[in-house]
Amino acid sequence: MAAPIGGMKVVFSTKVAVCSITALCINNELILAGEGSSLNSYGLTTGTPLDSLKVLKAANIYGIKPGKRFLCVYGQKCIGIVESACADVNSRWRKVGSDYEFEDWILDVCWLNDQECCGELAVALAHNVVLHWDCLSETILTRVYCEENCILYSAKLVGHCWTDLVVAAGTVYNEVLLWNTRVTGGERKNSVMHRLTGHKGVIFDIDVSVATSRLCSVSDDRSIRVYTYTGALSRLHDARFHLLGVFYGHRARVWRARLLRHHLVSVGEDAACVVWDYGGRAVQRYEGHRGRCVWSLAINAAETVIVTGGGDACIRRWIVDDAAPSRVKFLSLPPQTEHSDSTAGLETADSDGVTNVRCDIANHTWLNDKFFLRDARKEAAAEEDTEAGREATAVTGRTTAAEKDTEAGREPTAEAGRTPGTEKDTEAGREATAETGRTAVAEEDTEAGRTVAAQSGKEAAPESRRKSRRVDFPRNVALCDARGVLVMMDSGVLYSHDTASATWRVLLRGRNNFGGYSVMASRHHLVLLGDIAGNICLQSAIDADVDVADASAHAGKVLGLTWAGDDTFLSTGPEGDLALWRVCDAGTSLSMRTLRRYVLPRCSQRWVTAGVVQGRLLVCGDRGGTVHAYRVSEPSGVSTVAEDTSECTDWRQPVQSFARVHGKAGVTDVLRSGSDLVLTAGRDGQYRQWKIDGSSRLKLMYSNRGCKGLDWIEKIILAKDDLWICGFHSSNLVVWSTTLACRLLQVPCGGGHRAWDIRFHGNVATFAYIKSGCVCFGESQLRTDFVVKPSLHGREINSLCHLYTLSHRMNDDKMAAGSSQSVSIIATASEDTTINIAAVCSDATSGTRVQVLYRLQNHISNVRTLAVSRPCCPLVASEGGRVMFSGGGRAQMLAWRVTANAGNAASAAPSGDESAMVGLGEVTDTAALCQYMLLGDISLSEKRKANYKPWKEATPSVNPETRFMSLSAGQLCRNGTNNHDHDVIVRHFIGAACSDGLVRLFGFNEEDRGFQLLGYSNFYGCCVLRVTHLRVFERLLLVTSATDGCIAFWDVEKVVVNFMEERCERDDEGTDSTKMFPKQMEAPMFCITSAHQSGVNSICLSSLPDDKLLVASGGDDNSLRLTVLQTARRDAGVTMEIICTHVEASAHAAQITGIKVLPGDVIVTVSIDQRLTVWKFKILDNVAQLKWTSSTFINIADIAEMEAWQTLDGDWLLGLCGVGLQVLQTHNL
């Protein structure tokens, strides 16, 4: 007889759960949220987390109903009663009694006789039944049925008196049934009073407003139906319902709706919150939740604040009518609108030479709440044309510039609004940009045209006369300081406009070299101007007494000007001539000098559009999308270039160039971030972070996309705890917050092909742009919505891996000074194509939380699996780095390096620049715990060339739908042979289980960041689900499982050794080792056939004494199988033999998706039945025994994977992922 299994009982408790927000309520300036089975409270005005209480034992919360004394919290079939510990709004909650479980799903609850605090409730169940329940005595007083006994999807109870209670029930038959609970004649089955039809789908929610006599219902058909009724609902048989309207505006199913006095608010599957008026018009649309669904909705009593909770575990607060549409006014141009040297129409200049002109308000017209301009002077000038001018036009067949002036024709530079046109300008330099597709025909009048006019017998107008009659127009615009607008006219006159006093003044005049062509760049109170002759002018935009600085910069026209710092700027001339300048502002005078000159590599559009000086490097981007790095010198002229410059013999050339890293549309912004980091942005819709290493070389850390649809990024702004992206979406100027994941500002300016500028002053944005030949100026209040609880992922989480466990010094006032806590750094991969690097940390105020540090967005499809391997490069190993591999759809696999910042982790909160470097999530004292870098990627379904011949390829063909189902990575510590220690040696191996039935083995080297396919096998004829690895007798073994229930063991040591030796031989022969054909691996060395009836979803291996190996597996057949193998050496290989097995046929009620073997002979399994089960096992006399210990309810659904790790205190943590994330803890292992 087998000995019983003893030992201490192991129980796991929830440490933190990140779940869908399924219930929301606003009560006494508190936001109450149902997250899983816990009730969490937050401050309404601050969003600060205040308290968390686990209310329901084995159910998720779907509704919260506040009463005068108690809170009723319900979900699924259970109800829990909660009361406040004291009257203070920041008080903690406490539970009253235990859960009460009903026989059916609870749809709605309302308090009865609440003014007397009697504790009676009405409970609506899913089969059209209403219960009268006393929560204090936990007894059902009355049960009332509806005569139509059908399944309900929603219900709404109206009233507080049992005898007058009205039930609005939404059925699966697309109807809303209205009946009451009044019992007459002892009959408890009441009839339906009213039946509202019209929906073409099931009813998901119903709301009734007694104050406005309205009822609304939302449905699967994406519509909202609003009804009005006459009479009192208490006399339901006398009420009459009339359809007010059917609202369509959601792009998917509608989940919730709430009736307000003047508006209706709805949320749905499209992750949008829409505010409607009762005419059916969508007044506002709030978008910011990641993923697909907004599940819950709450509105305060004043109807000014909307709170939404989504499937991304995010809670957002929206302010109704916040950030109204921007009011844009078209500035009236000064009276001088023609190219003429006369000063007619201008006021007399002051003694300082500055001319002050007041705006002509009579020329402004208000239309549709926007300030539009009707400039009579300009219209009159455009219509004035002499007889000779018209005759010349008739002969030459050309149209004057004034007659062809349209919205696009007079907009300057299309590239960024701040750079010149293409290099194909004519001799006069008047050719328009390629984007507008226009040519300033009036400006390229040639001698041939004048000859034709003479031959026709008609004298053409003199050139001076035509020039004096040509209408002037704004060529460029920029902002200075808070409310100043700089306008450069085509005539070469620079105006400054004070928007506060509505006055103009002339800053620069009389310089004919700026007429017809100019480039401009402003920063703070300084403005730079470049002309067609290669001259640069530095001007103060606020003080006309400051002397103007001039310099001859280039042999030809100035193609680009951009600031590279507060006192440095870059200028670009013909033939790639690039100059770095230093500006000196002495107060009464300005000066500038050249620091260095460089040469841009050849490209079609050869000028710099953005740049910054960071340390010893000048990092800049050109119009061709390339990022360059040049070495710079100190202001004293002493070079800081390293002595070893063999890699770049000509210091004028870039030391590094990343060709078209931002596509072919150009780099638009380069920004300094921290002490050694640089951010770049471009018109490819991405922004990238670069790091400058100790050898003053750029390394690409990551690339991220701002938001969907924002393919034209122009600026990146480091705000407090946020990173703002400014760009163009269609014809709108958009400011996007990466932290809030929503638009802060949207201006319909017409698109990016125009001159424009934007500045931010706190929460106010001022902007200016040119449209239809006029200067437009506006300012707008940015949205003040905030995130109460940040999001994790927008879709299901497929994989979870542990990276670090760090000791983090706390700065909490409630904890002892200098105390530290254990912080776990984890990575999660999701169906939303992103990978999150997050920290699981605790503090005395908000408890344990999961804080997202970075979002990795380089996958093009869903991310299915993650695997971690320690780096073997000595430098990275000393830094404590981890190499992480991610794989998923489209057969794509990426390699990342995640490095812990041990010094920053124990320090105080980071400074401004360092915190702004993160820019991807909530920046706190934990944001500097780690950094990451993209090392490399590989895709098995890469695009082939047109002449690709598949029959000549040695590797098997790859289906483009192939997915990496599972990865397992480890370290290969092998030295080179035959004196090839300096060669590239594979330092990490990756075993891959693929959906096309192949098992693949890859190698990866951190030094060259390259993947190599070492071997593959088509042993399985079905999808391979899992792969893991272990070392037995110093031999590397892969263990795989598939949908056929077979578990296979592969000895891949020979494959790796043969690959390395063959590579060295090929290098000796001088052949390219990167084009080696992969080897087909041998058959598995051992198989456990029919381990499960179907797919094996999880495998865990554990070494036992006497060279035994425990294989624990869980599958789709709901069973848990233990297999004990005896291993032994034989020749140069390993042999295995099954000693005993044990099968727990019904370990779970659904398929097992995660299994771990922990110390103390403990096995933990988890299933999609939302149960975590702890088992004890024992191997005695070659007999395996298994005993159930405990089970714990898991809040998240569709559990995909489980990860286990140990804290610094010795406790074990379990991380579960699925539709959310849950971390559990045990202390007695």
UniProtKB/TrEMBL annotation:
Residues 381-469 are annotated as: Disordered. Residues 401-413, 421-433, 460-469 have a biased composition (Basic and acidic residues). Keywords: Cytoplasm, Repeat, tRNA processing, WD repeat. It comes from the Eukaryota. It holds the Pfam family WD40. It is found in: Cytoplasm. Its main location: cytoplasm. Belongs to the WD repeat WDR6 family. This is tRNA (34-2'-O)-methyltransferase regulator WDR6. The lineage of its organism: Eukaryota, Metazoa, Ecdysozoa, Scalidophora, Priapulida. The gene is LOC106805174.
